[in-house]
Amino acid sequence: MSTSPFTYGAAPGALPGLGHLWPLLRRPTEFLAELPAYGDLVEIRLGRSRAYVPCHPELLRRVLADDRTYDKGGAYYDRARAMAGNGVATCPHRDHRRQRRLLQPAFQKGQLAAYAEVMTEEIAALTDSWEPGRVIDAYPVLYGLSLRTLTRTLFGTRVDEAVVDGIRRSFETAFSGFFRQMFMPPALRRAPLPANLRHRRALRRLRDTVERIVASRPRDGADRGDLLSVMLAARDEDGGPGLSDAEVHDQVVTVLAAGTETVAATLTWAAVLLTRHPAEQERLRAECAAVLDGRPARWADVPRLPRAERVIDETVRLYPPGWLFTRVTTAETDLAGRSLAPGATVVVSPAPVHRHPGVYRDALAFDPDRWLPARAAALPRGAFVGFGAGARKCVGDAYGMAECVIALATLVSRWELAAEPGADLRPVPLAAFYRPRRLSLRLTRRTEPGGPASGGRGAASGGRGTTSGGRDD
Ligand code: HEM
Q1: Which of 50, 100, 122, 426 has the smallest C-beta neighbourhood within 10 Å, fewest atoms?
Q2: Residue 450 in 3-state DSSP?
Q3: Does domain 8-445 have CATH number 1.10.630.10?
Q4: Is ligand 1 within 6 A of the CB of residue 268?
Q5: How far is CA 217 from CA 84, 99, 213, 245, 251, in A?
Q6: What's the CA gap between 388 and 277, in Å, rounded?
Q7: Is 65 within 8 Å of 363 (Cβ atoms)?
Q8: Segment 198-248, tens digit of pLDDT
Q9: Residue 382 and residue 45: Cα distance in Å, rounded?
Q10: Nearest-angstrom CA–CA distance, 185 and 180
């Protein structure tokens, strides 16, 4: 008999051949959030294969903390590697420490202040370009924002619009249908089907563009204030040459893949939540108006916008863009009293824990104030894994948070967001990151560009209001 304090169970309803793929891909968050009802560790079927989903914060934390035993691999990372190469996000444990050490300096605080200038310029230009009454399709607009911001911080300030557009088109073709590719039988994936050919062409175009940019950079060790020059200047611990051109290429594609859709999806879900909870939008606007007085948010403002940060944290809790990753066990191991053989697939997903009623009070409610320091401190370890955890935790977490806070604060202080009828908030099926299909936003002017904040309906609260407590779904 197991002496483990954790319970183990199997999810019902697996279909022959498909297993749980149908609910997993059609209503992912709901399906994953239902799993804790069957145990702390729950067995599901991905097609014919068995996979284990940690549904207890402590088990999820253990898996993420032990990146040697639970290595990157399995359906998700095998596919991601085929697309993005062997970069820091996709490489196995044996390559990771070196890659992370070489990449980490590009994301250090000193660098972030410089990148934030680009974030400020881009969100200011975007919010200045709108006229009152305009209706925008939120995700594509915010994706354009995050892609322009990241290409500029990666490659420096002079990036041709045509290059950005080319990267966008390659990504759209190559990475849409990520999960379809992931679960497609290999023979079908190799077949000369039109979708496969388009996918391959898009990947080749992306590779060529990035290779050209990397090759055009002198390797003179100069810091040009962008991510690429820090990557090129990095040296190995033993004085070795650092990343080769091919390795830099893989890091660049990895960072582009990991750092654009995630930010755009977070901002879009934040807009969904703020339009559903107007009182929260008003509280946030009051904080932003008081701090910004009509100008766009800057790096130095980020610590003065705690409510904006809480709204982002709460958005990532409820709608984590990185909704499913896989790990593969490299040795026999015990999890929740269950012996897992080497090669077992473990599914890492925030949803079972982020929406767990035993972990979060009123778990489905949008309540940014649950991230006030005293309340957040009472949460168990492993309760929030929206940016991962352990050695493989998101290297761009501070970058991503700064970008989301700067963009959201600027946006909300200048424009009131209201959802137009006809939103389709079901997740885009089979996309690499979790995002809604369509959210149209009608924009009403709050402040003149660069002008003082309008009084609005609420006075500056310093971000200490209570929540509207509305149910999320
Ligand atoms: C709100 C925005 C973001 C979210 C929610 C997010 C989420 C995540 C998650 C969950 C992981 C861990 C994946 C795993 O354990 O398998 C991760 C890893 C990673 N993220 Fe992010 N991310 C965000 C923004 C960014 C940005 C802006 C960048 C780069 C500019 C970035 C670059 C990376 C990289 C390179 C990794 C791999 C780290 C490693 O394995 O050492 N992310 N991210």
Answers
A1: 426
A2: coil
A3: yes
A4: no
A5: 21, 20, 7, 10, 15
A6: 27
A7: no
A8: 989 999 999 999 999 888 888 888 888 899 999 999 898 888 889 999 999
A9: 24
A10: 10
pLDDT score, position 449 = 52
pLDDT of residue 448: 57
CA-nearest residue, atom 9 of ligand 1: 387
- CB of 100 within 6 A of ligand 1: the answer is yes
Higher-confidence position of 159 and 418: 418
Please check whether residue 135 is in contact with residue 263, taking contact to mean a CB–CB distance below 8 angstroms. Answer: no
Q: Residue 365 carries which DSSP code?
A: B
| Type of residue found at 248 | V
Question: How far is Cα 184 from Cα 188, in angstroms, rounded to an integer?
Answer: 6
Mutate to test the pocket of ligand 1, among 91, 152, 262, 385 (most ligand atoms within 8 A of CB): 262
384 in ligand 1 pocket by Cβ < 6 Å?
Answer: no
Mutate to test the pocket of ligand 1, among 108, 251, 394 (most ligand atoms within 8 A of CB): 394
Atom of ligand 1 nearest to the CA of 260: 27
The alpha-helical segments, DSSP class H, found in 105-160 are 109-128, 138-155
Q: Which CA distances in Å does 269 have to 26, 75, 133, 320?
A: 18, 26, 21, 9
Give the pLDDT confidence of 360-417 residue by residue, as tens digits.
999 999 999 999 999 999 999 999 999 999 999 999 999 999 999 999 999 999 999 9
Find out whether the beta carbon of 399 lies less than 6 Å from any atom of ligand 1: yes
Q: Which atom of ligand 1 is nearest to the CA of 266?
A: 1
Q: Is the pLDDT of residue 470 over 80?
A: no
Number of H helices, E strands in the chain: 19, 13
Give distance in angstroms: CA of 161 to centre of ligand 1. 25
In short, whether 102's Cβ falls inside 6 Å of ligand 1 is: no
**Residue 400 Cβ < 6 Å to ligand 1:** yes
